[in-house]
Design brief:
about 400 residues; Urease, subunit C, domain 1; TIM Barrel; 2 domains; nine-stranded mixed beta sheet; 9 helices
Length: about 400
């Protein structure tokens, strides 16, 4: 396979890719064809000459990846960075195939989060981000993970409403511990506002989790992580979240957060239609080992694993979605269409964007990833423009 050439974006008027395996909603097509007209996928016309003939190279074309839960990358943070920092992180993840990305925050004061939400909302309006995810401060101190305990607070509906309002229509998801005072009322509020209520960083019982789902919670924030483990007499939130057809479960497939057998358990229990592969990435994603800030906390990254300097808790990941996808299909035995569903179609549906992204169909945005025979990224297109151009 020829080396990847990373380019500045160049507008593509009409592009025809042929000779690759193409993953469509209807199944996998060998020697398929994708036609791009401007920013959209167009119906195929067999008479057209290929712009990129990928025959004989073992390539696979999949929809652009959609990340629901991402705190940064390329050495830059969504939580505390400037607009240019945010764009640095966005560009880093785009080069790894993530064509749609939701910016996640970490626990800070409400005033700080409101100011950052105002900045992020401008980038949502510009089309650089797909929305904002507030992870904290409405989470349990018992399951705080890499969040500053001194800044945690109960999910008072008035505070939740104010934070959502600060995002000026860009809020897409709020993670909270529904068992805390005000939790269930806040879940109902978020559902009424059209914002995803996600159960996470929680110490809830099975019964409390069921109540939260009945109130409108539809996502499990990084299932298994930052919640009580599954036990045979105290099933806790994991069993409730896995068994309910209304819930989509986030999974961090980096080999650190989840054992492969646990990933297999989640896929088998929830089914591929209810899994969303995420990164939970922090600044070091696509950047390297070293010392970083995660909100007000210090993080050390060694050999690609991020942990708090004080206490040693895992502090997000250094994952990019191309790595999560490759692991799923080459190490975890996830069928190619199921992995595509979990990394593109399902998160697009949750964001209410499945009419535009998440699958390779005529009329949708020309967001796609070209992978070589080893499932390494060799091409990324977003809205008809090459972010990474196949050599």
């Amino acid at each position: 396979m020829a080396p990847v050439t990373t380019t500045s974006t160049t507008t593509t008027q009409r592009t025809v890719l042929t000779g690759a395996r193409v993953v469509l909603p209807s199944g996998v097509v060998e020697g398929g064809r994708i036609t791009v007209d401007g920013t959209r996928i167009a119906p195929n016309e067999q008479a057209e000459q290929a712009t990129h003939d990928l025959a004989g190279q073992g390539c696979t074309i999949v929809p652009g990846f959609v990340d629901l839960h991402n705190h940064g990358g390329g050495g830059a943070s969504f939580t505390s960075g400037t607009a240019e920092d945010v764009l640095t992180a966005v560009r880093t993840h785009r080069a790894h195939g993530t064509t749609t990305l939701v910016a996640s925050t970490v626990t800070e004061s409400l005033d700080f989060l409101a100011k950052q939400a105002a900045l992020l909302s401008e980038l949502v309006e510009q089309g650089d981000l797909a929305g904002i995810h507030f992870e904290g401060p409405f989470i349990s101190p018992c399951r705080k993970g890499a969040h500053d305990e001194s800044l945690l607070r109960h999910p008072d509906p008035a505070d939740v409403r104010a934070l959502v309002a600060a995002a000026r229509g860009a809020a897409r998801m709020v993670t909270l511990a529904a068992e805390l005072p005000g939790g269930i009322d806040s879940v109902r509020l978020l559902a009424d506002l059209g914002v995803i209520a996600a159960v996470g960083h929680t110490d809830a019982t099975y019964e409390q989790t069921v109540e939260a789902i009945d109130a409108g919670a539809t996502v499990a924030t990084h299932l298994f992580n930052a919640m009580p483990p599954l036990q045979h007499r105290e099933p806790g939130p994991i069993a409730a979240l896995l068994e309910d057809e209304r819930v989509t479960v986030e999974l961090i497939n980096d080999g650190t957060h989840l054992h492969p057998s646990v990933l297999e358990l989640a896929f088998g229990s929830a089914g591929p239609a209810r899994v969303a592969l995420i990164t939970d990435a922090m600044d070091a994603a696509g950047f390297g080992d070293g010392l970083y800030d995660l909100g007000p906390l210090k993080v050390e990254v060694r050999q690609g694993v991020a942990r708090l300097v004080e206490g040693g808790s895992i502090a997000g990941s250094t994952l990019t979605l191309d790595t999560a996808f490759k692991r799923a299909v080459t190490l975890d035995g996830i069928a190619l269409p199921d992995a595509v569903q979990a990394i593109s179609a399902n998160p697009a549906r949750l964001l209410g964007l499945s009419d535009r992204i998440g699958s390779l169909e005529p009329g949708k945005d020309a967001d796609l990833v070209v992978l070589d025979g080893d499932y390494e990224v060799v091409g990324v297109m977003r809205k008809g423009e090459w972010v990474v151009r196949p050599a």
